[in-house]
Amino acid sequence: MGLAYGYDIHLPPENVAGALVHLARLAPPGRDTPPLELTLPGGALLALPFTSDFRSGPVDCSTSSTVDLDLSLMFGVDEAVRDYAEAYGHEIQEDGRVRIGYVYLTIRFESLLHPRYAALEFWAATSTMSRLFARSARVREVFTGLTAASGGVCCVFDIGDGSFGPVCWRDGETVQPTDSDAAFPDREALVASWPDPGAGRDPGSGFGH
Length: 209
Prior knowledge:
three-stranded mixed sheet, alpha+beta, 10 strands
C-alpha cells in the first residue's frame, strides 16, 4: 500500500462553515464545473468550488456524521513544491502559487479525538504527494494558516498508520515537531490541553441541530 499522509484540523463544530469559506479561497480560480451546494448540520448552505465523490452535488449532510470532498488547492512554492510541480507538469502561476490536486477532505462533525469538536482531515491522494506534504513548509503553512483562520484548536500531521503524529499548530502558534513530541506524547495529553467546548451547553444538544 502507498503512503497516505495528511493534516488534521480540530475545531469547534460551529466553526466548520467559516473554515470551509476560508478553504474555498485556496481553490484555483476559473473553475469550469458548477459549485457544490453543501448543507451542513444546523442548516448552513454553502456553495463551494469543490466536488464530493467527484460530483458537484447538491449534498445534504445536515443529519450526517461525515462528508467527503475532493479538492484542488493552491500552494506557495518552496523547493519541495517546485520539484513536485516540475515532475508533474504543474505550472507556477503569476501569483507564485501552484495548483495541486486531488487533496481529499473528510469532515467529521464529531472528531475522533473529542466528540464535542469537529475535524477536517486532509489526505494526499498519492505517495508522492504524501512525501510533498511531509517535506514542504509551504504546504504545512496552508494547513496551519487555515487552522488559525478558522478558530481551530490544533493541527496535527497524520501519517495514516494510526500512530499519533506531531502537532504543527496549537493555541495560536506554530509548533516545532521536537517541541510537540515533548509537550504532547499522546492524544490524551493533546486533548487535555483543549478548552471544554461543552461548558454551559447540554451534553445531549449535539451541534446546534
